């Protein structure tokens, strides 16, 4: 696997990833835009060395944008998602891109202890549901799941409007918590109730460091 990709080359590769064929609203199935995924993954790799050569877990991986992107930069990636159909698309994506070092697992992350993950996890990178519809609190459940399996760093995307809540949760769990970047996140018209072609929302990239 080539690990010397530039951000532009990574973006070009990730642009080939298919999204959800029939997205489910209750699962908040929005694909992470490939330009944002490429920028985040390169940033984490270059600034924190938490991608290349690491065992990485993508919770709520969907069709594989973050787990595949990380693998393209040299991680061994595991992706967990509750939607078997999304994982079917993810497997088609790795086949198309010729990526071999990604394992996908179907299951509910809120019961993550049921999964056998054969390698120690160094890094968690995830774009969890924002919890803004009927899923209030699901973002916190994703962080809890990440804490239970990560021995080092967790990188997670959350709506900027929830920043205070997320930081307070990190403090309560005695995590070192930092907002690394505020990102303009573009979501395409995905569901029937969407009136606009796309909408931009402000999203934080937050790092949680798990201390022994």
TrEMBL record:
Keywords: Methyltransferase, Transferase. GO terms for biological process: methylation. Pfam families: Methyltransf_31. Residues 53-129 form the Methyltransferase domain. GO terms for molecular function: methyltransferase activity; nucleic acid binding. The keyword Transmembrane does not apply. The keyword Methyltransferase applies. InterPro entries: DNA_methylase_N6_adenine_CS (IPR002052), Methyltranfer_dom (IPR025714), rRNA_MeTrfase/Polyamine_Synth (IPR051720), SAM-dependent_MTases_sf (IPR029063). SUPFAM superfamilies: S-adenosyl-L-methionine-dependent methyltransferases (SSF53335). This is Methyltransferase-like protein 5.
């Amino acid at each position: 696997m080539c690990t010397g990709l530039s951000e532009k080359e990574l973006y070009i590769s990730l642009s080939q990833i298919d999204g959800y064929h029939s997205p489910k609203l209750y699962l908040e199935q929005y694909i992470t835009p490939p330009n944002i995924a490429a920028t985040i993954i390169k940033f984490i790799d270059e600034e924190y060395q938490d991608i290349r050569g690491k065992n990485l877990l993508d919770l709520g991986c969907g069709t594989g944008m973050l787990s595949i992107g990380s693998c393209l930069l040299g991680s061994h990636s595991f992706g967990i998602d509750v939607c078997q159909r999304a994982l079917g698309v993810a497997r088609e994506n790795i086949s198309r891109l010729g990526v071999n070092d990604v394992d996908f697992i179907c299951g509910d992350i809120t019961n993550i202890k049921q999964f056998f993950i054969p390698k120690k996890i160094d890094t968690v990178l995830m774009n969890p549901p924002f919890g803004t519809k009927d899923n209030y609190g699901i973002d916190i459940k994703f962080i809890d799941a990440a804490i239970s399996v990560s021995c080092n760093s967790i990188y997670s995307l959350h709506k900027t409007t929830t920043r205070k809540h997320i930081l307070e949760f990190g403090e309560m769990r005695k995590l070192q918590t930092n907002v690394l970047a505020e990102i303009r996140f573009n979501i395409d018209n995905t569901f029937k109730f969407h009136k606009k072609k796309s909408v931009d929302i402000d999203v934080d990239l937050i790092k949680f460091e798990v201390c022994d």
